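1st attempt posting a full record on here, be nice pls
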Amino acid sequence: MKWIREHIRLISIMSVVLILLIGMIVSYTASGNMAALSKVTAGGLTAVQGPVTNLGNRIAGGISSLFSFVTIKKENTELKTEVSELNRKIISLQLDKAELEELRTLKSALNYQGLAVGYDYVTADVAALDDSDQFNIFTINAGSDQGIAVDSVVLDGDGLVGHVYSVGGNWAKVISVIDENNSVSFRVFRDVSLLGILSGDGKGGLNGYMLNSNASVIEGDLLITSGLGFYPAGVPIGKVTKIEWQNDQLIKAVTIDPSVNFKDIQKVVVATPQASAEQVPLE
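the predicted structure (as tokens):
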């Protein structure tokens, strides 16, 4: 019984074949011609042909579906490639536009009063931060090979960034005005006779004091470089946000909001004095 259960399909096929043969023999013997045999054979073939045809149709349909799936998958892959290429072009255009805007912004740095003549200029990208998220000290991707030297002045389109304190062939390190170790002399743009000194507060801002304790500085005053020292005159530094008289030191202290965003510097202009150039002082 077990053998029969395992071979039931084979037994069924052999049974159908045996019945067809018996039918053929009986029909031939009874009629003596091929008419009955033909009918029986045709009927048997029809009975067998039906399932076979259905099976063939299903196989053909499956093959057709398989080819359709392969075609669709290929088309999807091609579409994904096209989309990726379009996205790459869009990103490239956006970067080109951003680069152009940055360069346009930097052009305004070349119009500062003290940089009108006598300076060579190099545009550079920020390559690395050396400290925290503030741009106290950072590295740019241009150096002595491009004409940059120690004490070259670093600017962006908004104002004074700092100066170069170390340089290599294709790199330079910049110390910004918000660093506590960097002091800058300034004038009040509203009244250039008012002088003071400022330095970084270690928190991304600027603190300073007026050289004349009676100076009539007010909140909102724009401070610019004085032209004393290696910083050229007339470069914006920041605006006064607070004024305080300090009795212990007998000075008028000022708190300054920098013109430059020292949390996001990407490109800078480095200005190096030409050998025969003289700075243009403010009157």
